[in-house]
Design a protein that fits this description.
The structure holds two protein chains of two kinds. Chain A has strands at 3-7, 10-14, 19-26, 33-38, 44-50, 56-58, 64-68, 73-78, 87-94, 103-105, 109-114. In chain A, strand 4 (33-38) and strand 5 form a beta hairpin. In chain A, strands 2, 4, 5, 9, 10 and 11 form a six-stranded mixed sheet that branches. The radius of gyration of chain A is 13 Å and the shape is globular. Chain A is built from no helices and eleven strands. Chain A is an all-beta fold. In chain B, the strands form two sheets. In chain B, strands 2, 4, 5, 6, 9, 10 and 11 form a seven-stranded mixed sheet that branches. Chain B has no helices and eleven strands. Chain B has strands spanning 5-7, 10-13, 19-24, 31-37, 44-50, 53-57, 65-68, 75-79, 88-95, 104-105, 109-113. Chain B is mainly β. Chain B is globular, with a radius of gyration of 13 Å. Classes of the chains: A mainly beta, B mainly beta. The A-B interface holds A 4, 9, 32, 36, 41-46, 49, 51, 90, 92, 94-95, 98-99, 101-108 and B 4, 31, 33, 40-45, 48, 55-56, 91, 93, 95, 97-108.
């Protein structure tokens, strides 16, 4: 069965510092992986997704993630944090892979950015 | 494209009452999902529709919960005889079925059961 583990429920960085949010997955099929961001009182917004092909995926707002099959990881990074990046970030795996719909989410990591 | 909308945004009810939430998906999307999110947790899948057909229901969806999508457009989620444990954020998402589809989420309905 598919599952997602996000290491660290809270991460705090200084403005301009590297952002690294960790995600490990378990999947019995080739995974489709997603990162979503949730701002207060808003719905989830897709940052990026990995399907097949290039393992380094670039998303919106300067974020990127690298799929590492050997490490079963899909960590999210951003070279330089901005105050507007403060939000909660969720890693997710598609339950059956491919187009089979429903997502399994991690518990989320709340990112704080200090001035 | 006006995005996914959900109504109401907030609902406070007393234990034992019935509540109904509505989700209006992005118009061309044929799939619609319901998730539940409790404090400190990621969203958990409840059910989904492809057009009018309800294709899957999670074990989380007890018999007090029912969802419909009568004309393949908007959807309603009803909770009967609410319990305090039903307090959560209920999220709706829609997508166009396909490989590695992207689900677009609404802002959610926050339910508080007193």
């Amino acid at each position: 069965a598919q599952s997602v583990t996000q290491l660290g429920s809270h991460v705090s960085v200084s403005e301009g510092a590297l952002v690294l949010l960790r995600c490990n997955y378990s999947s019995s099929v080739p995974p489709y992986l997603f990162w979503y961001v949730q701002y207060p009182n808003q719905g989830l917004q897709l940052l990026l997704k990995y399907t097949t092909g290039a393992t380094l995926v670039k998303g919106i707002n300067g974020f990127e993630a690298e799929f590492k099959k050997s490490e079963t990881s899909f960590h999210l990074t951003k070279p330089s944090a901005h105050m507007s990046d403060a939000a909660e970030y969720f890693c997710a795996v598609s339950r059956f892979g491919g187009s089979q719909g429903n997502l399994i989410f991690g518990k989320g990591t709340k990112l704080s950015v200090k001035p | 494209d006006t995005g996914v909308s959900q109504n109401p945004r907030h609902k406070i009810t007393k234990r034992g009452q019935n509540v109904t939430f509505r989700c209006d998906p992005i118009s061309e999307h044929n799939r619609l999902y319901w998730y539940r999110q409790t404090l400190g947790q990621g969203p958990e899948f409840l059910t989904y529709f492809q057009n009018e057909a309800q294709l899957e229901k999670s074990r989380l969806l007890s018999d007090r919960f029912s969802a419909e999508r009568p004309k393949g457009s908007f959807s309603t989620l009803e909770i009967q005889r609410t319990e305090q444990g039903d307090s959560a954020m209920y999220l709706c998402a829609s997508s166009f079925a396909g490989l590695a589809e992207t689900q677009y989420f609404g802002p959610g309905t926050r339910l508080l059961v007193l």
